[in-house]
Task: structure prediction
Amino acid sequence: MDPVAYERHLVPTLFRPLAGALLAAGPPTAGRRVLDVACGTGVVARLVAGTAASVTGVDVNPAMLALAARQEPGVSWVHGDAAALPLPDDAFDVAVCQQGLQFTSDPAAALRELRRVLRPGGALGLALWRDVARAPGFDAYAGALDRQGAPGDLMRRPFALHSHEEVVALVTAAGFGDVQGTTCVVRPRFPSARAFFAQQAAASPLAAPVAAMTPAAREAAVRDLEARLADRVDGEGLSFPVESHLFWARARRPAGRPQDTP
Result:
C-alpha cells in the first residue's frame, strides 16, 4: 500500500470527514493527552494537534508513520502494534482508533491495550464501517473483482467488524463502560468509476492483486464497475454513501480506584 496514494486519494474523501464526525461525537480533546492508534498517515492526530496537551500516533506501518511525521512533526509518532502498545499505563485521557480495529491481529487484545494506556475515566473513540452492503461503491468493486477471479474479499475486509452488538461486547469485555454508539454517512466523490477503480487499487492492499490481473481482466472489471454504478454518476462524477459506526466509551476504574473524567 502506497502511503502517498493513501493520503492523496483516501484521506480527503473518506478519512478526513469521518475523523471530524468521530471527534465531534466525543468529549473535548483540547488540553488532553490524546492517542491515535492505527493512525495511518495521522489524520485524527493532525486534527487535534493544535489544541491537545500532547498527541501520540501509533501505527504498525513505518512508511505511513514517515509520511505522517513529515506532515506534522509536533506529534509523537510511534511504531507499534495495537495489540501490544509500546506505551505506559494510564498515559492518555482520550484514545481514538479510526477504521483500524478490524485490521489488528487481535481486536480483543487491542481493546485491552487501549484500556491499559487510558487513565480510569478516560475516553475511547472508535469508527468502524457498517456492512459493505451499506457502501454500494465498495460492494460493487468487490463483486467486479470476484467475477474476474481477483480477491474481492480484500475490498470487503475493511467492513469485517460491522456488527454493533459484537463491537459493544468486545469493548465492554475489555474494561469499558458507558458505551454510546451512533452512525454517520460519508459521501466520497470520484471523477468517474474508472478513476475510483484506479485510486482504490493504488491506495490500498489491492495494489498487487490488481497489478497481477491481465489487462483484459482489469478492463472487464472496470466496465463491470461502471455499469453497476452508472446510476450514481452525475455531472460532477461518481458519489455514493458509506456508513460508519461511531462509538465512544469510558475506561472503567479498577476496584478501589477513584474515577475522574475529562
